[in-house]
Amino acid sequence: MPNMTRSTTLAACTAGVVALTVGLASPAANAVTKLTHAQAAAMFRDAGITWSSSGNCSDRNNPTCTSFEQINQTTVQGVITLKQASGCAINITGGTETGHAGGTYSHWNGYKVDISPYTCVSNYITGHFTYIGKRSDGASMYRSAAGNIYARESNHWDITYYNCGCD
Asked: For this UniProt entry, which residues form the secretion signal (predicted)?
């Protein structure tokens, strides 16, 4: 009987560890928080971050607009972190609107923003982040210590936020 008790206890402990491990690895643990355009705009406004669009609009389905609809909260926090760390003016020129390249870590899916290449922020990115080579389109890429990628396209910075960089 003592062996049966040990086996039962071991099985119960193993089941508990498996349950904890499964709980930690669940998709919910990696879920992203999506924001409305109004929520993101309020956060950007409060942080002193501006945005603009060639169409002077925020319709997600219009490529001439700059929309924040369905942007990831970590992306918004990442832009705010960049502004706070750099002390530079930040102007967003692209958000979650249609018209950008697709993919998992895309504008449409809330991971990317485009910002104006002002001298101050450009100097901060190139001076504080690690150059990691050129993208297939020729854009120079820099990686922050947090792992976010800053690609210098012809007329803007294309930034991919995997996390907020705020820890």
From this structure: 1-31
